[in-house]
Each structure stands twice: as structure tokens, then as C-alpha cells.
Amino acid sequence: MHMKILIDNGHGSNTPGKCSPDRRYYEWHYTREIAAAVVQHLQYRGYDAQLLTPEEYDVSLSARVERVNTWCRQLGKKNVCLVSIHTNAAGTGRQWMTARGWSCYTSRGQTAGDRLATCLYQAAALHLPGHKLRRDNTDGDPDQEAGFALLKNTLCASALSENLFHDNPQDLRFLLSDEGRCAITALHVEGIIRYINNFA
After folding, report:
1. 20 to 30 Å CA-CA from 98: which of 40, 73, 167, 187?
2. Domain layout of the chain by residue ranges
3. Which string of b and e fits 22-40 if b means at least 16 CB within 10 Å?
4. What is the helix (H) or strand (E) element at residue 181, kind and residue range?
5. What Cα–Cα distance (Å) separates residue 4 from each residue in 25, 42, 78, 156?
């Protein structure tokens, strides 16, 4: 079955904040690098992957949702999946914080996104040894649930990853390392392929 894989990247160059306290790191720039690498690796393996938001500036949530749903209407919602790549923050970006770890969000309730997120958690466990995986197992799966527009308003299986905390010095050091970039990229590639092989 043909699957269109849409990779989204958090925020844009005009988004205020969303950076490390020392300003070495900006979420919009990092997530675009990772998203591009994920797409490249998936395409190399023969999958139909593309960036949802190739623009450098911040594309509105409503526009992102419409881009996803246009593909869903064209191909059928079961033949499309979306992963939005972010990094987390516990504060406002002005000071270092202690929160750490990796997590993945879906919309509230049981949806196809839950299976996608579970596959990403399985891949994260392999590629992020020693890092905390922030889980919510109260409903039988590890993903956290929220009313994010990009998750609740899209028609297909959708998940949003929060790849460690950019306002934690230890997490940030890993994110910016070659090892960290490779691990974050690989967990998305392998998690998505796992989802397609098992559920698509």
C-alpha cells in the first residue's frame, strides 16, 4: 500500500522565544535540519516522504492542517501519516531547567495516531539509551495526549515528538552532538517504517 509520509518541523524563524538560554540553539532551525534528514533517509529507502512546511518562516497551524488534509482527501486518510518534530522546554528560555526526556503526543482518545506514537516510542527506546522516556500509560499506550490543532484537526494518523529539552544543559549537549542528531533522526525514520510495516 502506498503511504504518503508528511514530516513537519516546529515553528519558524519569526517565532519568538523557542531557544536555549544561551541562544546557541533555536528550535525552528534544529527541527528543520532533523526533518530534512528524516525525509532524505526515508526517500533513500524508497518511501514517499516530504516536508510539510519547507518554508523558513512559521506557517500557521490552520495552513498546516489544510496541507495535511488535502493529501488525505486526495489519497485517503489511511494512506497518509504525519509526524511533527519539536524539542521541549520547561521554562521561558531565560534560564536552565532540570526537566529532561523524550515524549510523543497524539490527540485525545484512541486514534490511529496512537499506533504511530507507540512505534516512535519503541524506536526511541532503542536509539536513546540512558535518556528518560516520558510516558503516560494510563490508557494502555505510552503516548501523551493533548488538544494540539495539528493532531486533533488532521484526518490521518498524526503524532508530535518532543525530542528532549532544549533548556536543559545535558539534553541540549546531546541534541547538538553528532551522536544526538543521528539518534533523533534514526528514531523517527525507524519508528515511521515500523508503523508502515505493521499497521499501514
Report:
1. 187
2. 4-199
3. eeebbbbebbbebbebbbe
4. helix 178-199
5. 31, 11, 9, 10
For residue 189, how many other CB atoms are within 10 A of its CB?
24
Distance CA 189, CA 183 (A): 10
15 C-beta neighbours (distance < 10 Å), count: 14
Query: Model confidence at 199, in pLDDT bands (50, 70, 90)?
Result: confident
Distance CA 138, CA 155 (A): 24
Residue 175 sits at the vertex; the CA angle it makes with 57 and 15, to the nearest 5 degrees, is 20
* CATH number for the segment(s) 4-199: 3.40.630.40
CB 104 within 8 A of CB 143: yes
Angle between helix axes 169-176 and 178-199 (nearest 10 degrees) is 80
Q: pLDDT tens across 60-119, in order? A: 999 999 999 999 999 999 999 999 999 999 998 899 999 999 999 999 999 999 999 999
* CB-neighbour burial class of residue 192 (10 A; exposed 0-12, middle 13-18, buried 19+): buried
> pLDDT tens, 4-13?
999 999 899 9
157-165 vs 102-106, strand pairing mode: antiparallel
